[in-house]
Design brief:
Elements lengths: L1 H9 L4 H8 L5 H20 L5 H42 L3 E4 L2 E4 L5 H16 L2
Antiparallel strand pairs: 1-2
Length: 130
Amino acid sequence: MAMRQILNEIRGMKVKDAAAHVKPLLTVSNLKTSTQRALDNYHVKYIQTDSIQPLYHLCFGGMIFSYLIALPEERRHLEHQQHIKEHVIVIGLFLVLWRIGNGVCRLLVFSSGLNLILCCAVLMIHIHSK
């Protein structure tokens, strides 16, 4: 509610005037009092009424916090998977090696199911062309 009031006050101002208006609001003492007032309001609204909401806030807040902490590692993992996937496609499509010896075709490298199907198709075409 207070944030909406501040935004409505700033809306019509120029940038220089808005900075001068917001700067006194961001003092240490003002932030301490507003934080204490918010905690007191939360205590009155949820703790004193024996509500289940603080438990939900704790669970969902913990879940969001743990997700945000793990996000950089997950992004690195997904980028690594994408990088590996590109190399697997290159290996599967361009570097499939086979050796023909005594009329027997042996596949030396195949990586995924799709590449295996492609390799088998290539080998069948090669065998039938003999």
